[in-house]
TrEMBL record:
Segments forming domain Metallo-beta-lactamase: 47-220
GO biological process: antibiotic catabolic process
Statement: the UniProt record of this protein carries the keyword Ribosomal protein: no
Name of the protein: MBL fold metallo-hydrolase
InterPro entries in the cross-refs: Metallo-B-lactamas, NDM-1-like, RibonucZ/Hydroxyglut_hydro
Signal peptide: 1-22
UniProt keyword Cell inner membrane present: no
Organism: Pseudidiomarina andamanensis
Organismal lineage: Bacteria, Pseudomonadati, Pseudomonadota, Gammaproteobacteria, Alteromonadales
Family (UniProt): Belongs to the metallo-beta-lactamase superfamily. Class-B beta-lactamase family.
Alphabetized UniProt keyword annotations: Signal
UniProt-listed CDD domains: metallo-hydrolase-like_MBL-fold
């Protein structure tokens, strides 16, 4: 329950990441590390889940949560490995994954992201310049560390237009970014290149490349498996069907919201993506 509340809070803060209020909330946040394999860890705090890979010559971290948590995250990683953090990968541009970028860049960490992430962050004048990605790519990239490499692959137009899924080497573990919200309506950022069909297609494409034992670090929620991700896809397809039916019957967006989805989806609603917001996303 507590995990769920923190997750809810984190996404509500997507758009409030730079406010003083958000900053003061950071004091109570604990960064918790869970070891998933010899070299891979998942860190939770507030905001998108962080992945950590202990490479041969440094640490690669996936996503950075909020600036106000950077010291705590650095301390948590220092407990995992004595090696310096060399690289920070952003799974996409949203503030609950990138607000901490500048704090890590100032420690000499290289920031890697899809080129659309850099474009969107650069267009946000409130985003600290030091935190802009310095290494960008289009389709895929290998972040080498000694003899191993963390693999990044871009999936177009899903949650945003800059989504990256991360494959950790020598382990059956991936970081899915915000293509995976566990058991709650996902945020699909239609204003930033997100697309419902694209989201489904991308998740199915990744699922085809993993197996039932793959450990999946989701953008939001607890460590999951392929079957948990498929549940999300099925929910999206079924709720979209309901909304499309209403649309075909001539209902307006507001009328569809007023009618609502069938009762079986009630549990997927949460404070950031309520049933109303989810219906509006599907309708559009
Ligand atoms: Zn996001």
């Amino acid at each position: 329950m507590r995990g769920l509340k923190l997750g809810v809070l984190s996404a509500v803060m997507l758009f409030a990441s730079t406010t003083a209020q958000a900053q003061s909330n950071m004091d109570d946040v604990e960064i918790k590390a869970t070891q998933l394999s010899e070299r891979v860890y998942m860190l939770t705090g507030m905001g998108g889940n962080i992945g950590v890979y202990v490479g041969d010559d440094g640490v690669v971290m996936i996503d950075a949560q909020y600036k106000g948590l950077a010291d705590k995250i650095t301390a948590a990683i220092a407990k995992i490995s004595e090696q310096p953090i060399r690289t920070l990968v952003n799974t996409h541009f949203h503030g609950d994954h990138t607000d901490g970028n500048a704090a890590f860049a100032k420690q000499g960490v290289k920031i890697v992201a899809h080129e659309n992430v850099k474009t969107r962050l650069a267009a946000n004048e409130k985003f600290e310049r030091e935190g802009l990605p310095t290494i960008t790519f289009d389709k895929s990239l290998e972040v080498k560390t000694g003899s191993t490499a963390v693999r990044l692959k871009h999936y177009p137009h899903g949650h945003t237009d800059g989504d990256v899924v991360v494959w950790f080497p020598s382990s059956n573990i991936i970081h899915a970014g915000d293509l995976f919200f566990v058991d709650r309506f996902p945020f699909i950022d239609l204003n930033a290149g997100g697309n419902v069909q694209g989201f489904i297609d991308n998740v199915r494409a990744v699922i085809a490349d993993i197996d039932g034992d793959t450990q999946i670090i989701p953008g939001h929620g607890s460590l999951s498996k392929r079957s948990d991700w498929l549940r999300l896809v099925h929910m999206i397809e079924a709720t979209r069907e309901e909304v499309m039916t209403m649309k075909e019957q001539g209902m307006t967006e507001d009328e569809a919201v007023a009618k609502g989805l069938s009762e079986q989806w009630a549990d997927w609603s949460w404070s950031f993506i309520t049933e109303e917001r989810w219906i509006r996303t599907l309708y559009k």
